[in-house]
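Blinded run. Sample ID left blank on purpose so nobody reads anything into the name before looking at the predicted structure. Input follows.
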Amino acid sequence: MSAKEKRARAKQRRREEAQRQAELSREQERRARRRRAVTMGFAGVAVLVLVAIVTVVVQRLGTPDEGPTPRGAVVGGTALAVGKRSAPVTLTVYEDFRCPACGSFEQRFGPTVDELVDDGSLRVEYHVATIIDAPFRGSGSKVAGNAAACAQDTGKFRPYHARLFGHQPPESEDGFTEERVIELARGVPGLVDADFRSCVRDERYRPWLERVQAEFDDRFDRAGAPTALLDGKVVLGGSDGTLAKSMKTPQALEREVTNRAERS
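Blinded prediction complete.
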């Protein structure tokens, strides 16, 4: 074999070896890509599983227990209604049983509201707020609010609502205890029974009260009570302390409701 042939064969072997090395390198790269793909796939699944677990845990630990809703509650379950569903005018009231301004509102406007409800002109939707407990400490707003919701279950909300406001303790005194609200309930015929007492003592509607207060805060940016709306328009309180002409006196409210009822 000549020297020229030897050089040609050596060159061919080097070329073949280079090709083999290149193919081996490509195969190693393909395997590495497959391993990365599998690893990323498992990692993605693991992340999804972890997210799902965390979501469930957060929902269970972070979401408040919504609890039961009082029987017959309206407006998404946040209000207790008094009056005929067919009444042409609706008064929406946010009030706290421990709130002295709410007590004054009931004392002043309550008799007129009752007359308008009884003659079928007005329906009232009460949202039970619990804003006084925090600044003055205690739990009287929640205890009384829960008891009122318990009374709703037996169809006695209206007379018990009047009884609570009629015996409202001073704002600075946390006077609405469980014993006191049960004692006041005895003044409403047919209200106090084993279920009512259990409802009060078990705080059955405490989570519901929290939902009602949250809705009030969200809607009016933490407004004070009482806040009232007539056919959906704020006429008292609200975010800017409204006092409409129709709410300046009970007589003005009666005229406004009567006029609206006649026009309907």
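Unblinding after everyone has recorded impressions. The domain at 80-263 is CATH 3.40.30.10 (Glutaredoxin).
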